[in-house]
Amino acid sequence: xxxxxxxxxxxxxxxxxxxxxxxxxxxxxxxxxxxxxxxxxxxxxxxxxxxxxxxxxxxxxxxxxxxxxxxxxxxxxxxxxxxxxxxxxxxxxxxxxxxxxxxxxxxxxxxxxxxxxxxxxxxxxxxxxxxxxxxxxxxxxxxxxxxxxxxxxxxxxxxxxxxxxxxxxxxxxxxxxxxxxxxxxxxxxxxxxxxxxxxxxxxxxxxxxxxxxxxxxxxxxxxxxxxxxxxxxxxxxxxxxxxxxxxxxxxxxxxxxxxxxxxxxxxxxxxxxxxxxxxxxxxxxxxxxxxxxxxxxxxxxxxxxxxxxxxxxxxxxxxxxxxxxxxxxxxxxxxxxxxxxxxxxxxxxxxxxxxxxxxxxxxxxxxxxxxxxxxxxxxxxxxxxxxxxxxxxxxxxxxxxxxxxxxxxxxxxxxxxxxxxxxxxxxxxxxxxxxxxxxxxxxxxxxxxxxxxxxxxxxxxxxxxxxxxxxxxxxxxxxxxxxxxxxxxx
Amino acid sequence: xxxxxxxxxxxxxxxxxxxxxxxxxxxxxxxxxxxxxxxxxxxxxxxxxxxxxxxxxxxxxxxxxxxxxxxxxxxxxxxxxxxxxxxxxxxxxxxxxxxxxxxxxxxxxxxxxxxxxxxxxxxxxxxxxxxxxxxxxxxxxxxxxxxxxxxxxxxxxxxxxxxxxxxxxxxxxxxxxxxxxxxxxxxxxxxxxxxxxxxxxxxxxxxxxxxxxxxxxxxxxxxxxxxxxxxxxxxxxxxxxxxxxxxxxxxxxxxxxxxxxxxxxxxxxxxxxxxxxxxxxxxxxxxxxxxxxxxxxxxxxxxxxxxxxxxxxxxxxxxxxxxxxxxxxxxxxxxxxxxxxxxxxxxxxxxxxxxxxxxxxxxxxxxxxxxxxxxxxxxxxxxxxxxxxxxxxxxxxxxxxxxxxxxxxxxxxxxxxxxxxxxxxxxxxxxxxxxxxxxxxxxxxxxxxxxxxxxxxxxxxxxxxxxxxxxxxxxxxxxxxxxxxxxxxxxxxxxxxxxxxxxxxxxxxxxxxxxxxxxxxxxxxxxxxxxxxxxxxxxxxxxxxxxxxxxxxxxxxxxxxxxxxxxxxxxxxxxxxxxxxxxxxxxxxxxxxxxxxxxxxxxxxxxxxxxxxxxxxxxxxxxxxxxxxxxxxxxxxxxxxxxxxxxxxxxxxxxxxxxxxxxxxxxxxxxxxxxxxxxxxxxxxxxxxxxxxxxxxxxxxxxxxxxxxxxxxxxxxxxxxxxxxxxxxxxxxxxxxxxxxxxxxxxxxxxxxxxxxxxxxxxxxxxxxxxxxxxxxxxxxxxxxxxxxxxxxxxxxxxxxxxxxxxxxxxxxxxxxxxxxxxxxxxxxxxxxxxxxxxxxxxxxxxxxxxxxxxxxxxxxxxxxxxxxxxxxxxxxxxxxxxxxxxxxxxxxxxxxxxxxxxxxxxxxxxxxxxxxxxxxxxxxxxxxxxxxxxxxxxxxxxxxxxxxxxxxxxxxxxxxxxxxxxxxxxxxxxxxxxxxxxxxxxxxxxxxxxxxxxxxxxxxxxxxxxxxxxxxxxxxxxxxxxxxxxxxxxxxxxxxxxxxxxxxxxxxxxxxxxxxxxxxxxxxxxxx
Lengths: 490, 1073
Prior knowledge:
The complex is a heterodimer of chains A (490) and B (1073). Chain A is 65% helix and 0% strand. Chain A is mainly α. Chain B is built from 34 helices and 38 strands. In chain B, the strands form twelve sheets. Chain B has a seven-stranded mixed β-sheet. In chain B, strands 19-24-21-23-22-25 form a six-stranded mixed β-barrel. Chains A and B meet through helix 2, helix 5 and helix 10 of A and strand 29, helix 28, helix 29 and strand 33 of B.
């Protein structure tokens, strides 16, 4: 230290880190306010949301039953358009899941502490989105009851699945993804389940939470194992963030269809998935903050700000990919590629059947997130929410554009054909939103929405050197931002 | 239902078998029971379809009939024997083939029918007969479905109430007894030339001399007959020999389509088979109202309203008269009073010059729906060109003339007819509207109606008698070349129907024939064989009498009679004779009634295959529509959008009106409206119900084929049409998909063997380099030495679509119904793509047209195979891309990745569900296929369930059958190669022009391996490196370079890049340019 300097312990205000948990909350407060959501009586609004949403989910299941009973013909698909909403919805939902895995695994490995307050909900969202995604490839096949042919079981004829087919890769990728995500999520839940068990007042709750808490005692040994397991699972999940959507993109990229046959797809799909996933995380958490004001001390302005920045980044990557596709279509001077991008998608010459969908996608995914360059806009929850809704819509349209515009107008003009959805596929899609949101409401009701144990680790109190640990002291802590330990903790 | 069964005598010696103790004891109760034959089972016949048991009985009987007649030519015995003891000639699963013929108004089509266990399943042309040579047309292919049509008439009806054969026979006997000399008795029949029918007619005329005999065909050849009678003399008909003509002009004559037969198509295409740049091609000029397949393949085409064809013919005659210095022709042409036609005078001038230049080797054809006067002018042109005796030969008309429908209508109106016997036909539906036939028929005391369906004409008939299908009855006929052909049954009448001969025999005082006895007598009279037994056996075996074709007659053109007709012209049947119908004026339109290539005059309205096969030009299914030109549509302010939603217009002709959706048809003449007849039936089965609009309502005796002065009102209503090809233009992809050149260009590039192979993308894409070597394909030395391949010659494919229905019949392809076609789910394994081409796809008023059959290309590097997750579509050793239906789970990924979009998915259980109930919950809707339809399925092809993908298999069942036959014949020699061209696929077999060739490309002897090395050969989308096994042969047009607009011919279908640029690019290994 310079001798001439006037030493100030105070970091200048503008350089202070914003605390991860606002209002200097204590560990108890965190436990109480998160557990309270689960422990307090079911609020009326919850029933008002849950009943219609589960009814919608049930109706979606009825539509699926109808479709399986009658055939894929109850959907609007036809001969050039062998896939449409089914695979669009599949890729849409599977993409949404990616934000959860990114937050929980990659941000964990890179020690991004702000993840702690959103990872639980994001991971739950991942699981529910993958469940919704898994419905579509399951039911879209013509003979659902024969779908077990996809399993690598040698049957009496010695026929194996075709390991060259990207659809088979999908089966492995998605099922691995789901399994690892469930394990990861559940492992993270164990300490909190222990907390809930210990706080539970009714015998039933205590018994059930007790079963799932797997005998968690919070001993040093258990923490050590827990953290090791969590780290390993994070390591396992990390490549999955990249691989799953890459594999999904292979469904298209390895084909020969103009508009699908594109090497840019894997990174573009992954970026798009993170983009769409973060939008969905915000779409859910922003209202949750409204309902449970206590949460806003944990999911703070800076969380929203950071996620908005990621949306801006990934949205721009996606925009770059869109433009690169157009460039390559021109640069290849392949007339079939050219037609797909310039006529079928951009609608030049008035020839695109679905160019409106392309422009919708462009606006939602590329233009609308650019507003996040402004800090003010990132701080405005209404604006953030609206942009997230645009992104959700745009990402659905992106998949629709890729699938339907390419199929509807491909090589032979003689077999071009329009596609329009029927009420069955519309309601099946709406039904998956019912399933997704119903599951999320159940999750909110019965499980801690925020990883209490993890959030507690990032508050200043968690630091062993924190003044509050000196015996009996309830003296106010140093300003949190001044804590050098913050960076070093665990 | 008590039926008398004649069980065969038990053998006197040997073991006796009995079914029950009752039979053993021979009690009267048992005998009664036996005769009643399953009393409770009577319901099986009344209520529904043919049950399995009764089917076995029928089947056994038909075997006995067909088989015994072959074996010993004895009178067939009538035992109904189920196959409890096998018959030696029947091997389950093996087809037996019988020759027969399909009677039509254009002459019977000689056929060979495949039957399995006594069930006919597939119709082929008779390869030994010169008319057919193994090919058939669309209608003959589909006619087998009518046999199994569950909506067919099944019962004898007396005043609409079910009756039975015996009661009818009794009533008929009484009717004949009371007929006296035949006064008040009138017969109304369809036109088909059956010598036995003519013989019975003679017998009836002797017995009932006052009875009248009327033949009515709504789309008959009466005008042509009249014109030939005038021009060449009564009893003579002119027949073109198309194969001899170098230059052909078709004036409103769709001789490759609805106006011709397979012989005409073959004759024409025999001169379009291009083997090299020096091949001599004929040249076809077509002048027509709407695009027909004839116009589509023509080298030059002029669109003209039907009412102006006469004016054009006259103008042409004047030009030819001048060029050939024929004053007579000139005088005749100037005497003719036709409506003035507007066209480019240069066009007709150059055309005349071309025709005159190939004097004696040219041919002018006038459409059979053109007025007799026009046809006479055309005869005069042919005479002036010296074509008579060269490209136009004469033939004696063998049938005695019959009374016209107009005369019969007059008799009916005068109440002169007490008994009207209508055999076949459907006059209530298709008689000219001004006759008001329904009312006339209602006024006749006794109407005996023999028909396939309980249709419009059966309503209110005293008796309705089910008419036996031609595959169920004995008969005979004359093919279009006049040769004598047999009609023999493959199966006993499924519903106990009577044939026309059965009914006429009763009137002739003969017993109802139980077998071929009537035909045998006729045969004896016609053939006068020395050894009747052998000759008759040969007749049935071959299906025709050798050397029985009509001999050419010398024709002399009667100029005087012709001039008289052209100038005076008062023949009632011909409306435009002499009189000059006004050309379509600005706000008045011409309405042309056309024969539908699919349902014909309406007789096939209930045939699902034909309803669903797209029209060769418009690609319309399940409906008819008012075809109008884009310009006329614009003027009227109506449109048909790409998805088939069409505006409905109201057309009025002399206060008769119909409301009909419009279909904007590129290449249609302006100011003219073409409407296909045969739709809008009111009393028809489940298939035909609700299809189209009845254009007969506008059709009168004075204007039977086209009416002028129609007015049009736009109703503002809309109708959804089911069109299988939404997009009709090439989008600049002609050089990739439908390559072509003019004969001149072909000659210029004679040294460039890659000329046709390097057009479009293939001129620019770098050579494909594979990163790994594929497993070697099979060679001539492999265990399976075959490699199946196909070629499609675009130069001879007219687009007639017979292959589509042949494929459907061979491969048990279901129909899906109108709603599903609208949704884009038709199932055809082979389709006929039709493109309209004009420069920049802009001007669709008068575009060029090209048809391209498209089926699975059996790519060696099949993109569908790699993407299937369950290995349901894989490659066979002999190079087929095969589908394992029971492995398929229906991801549809293969269809998405198919660049040709030839894969077909079963979106619903089309074989198990009613087409109207596809969307009903599966659990509560009725399942199952109509029993009668099951009988018609090919037993060697799986009937697919819902949720699986299907597509062309190159008729794998035929390949396997041939392999088995070869292996059986070769025994242990180890040679398993099928002899070259020992069999072929269904589409190749049916093709009347031989455009499709299928076979083993590893066998240098096979036709396909010779054709596919042609320099015209190219494979679609070669740059994708899919290595397809189907080779298309580029089309060669043979335009007359002096004709106006010739420079534009084919321009739209050629590469946008010049050829000079092409070679540098193709030589370069880098990417693109």
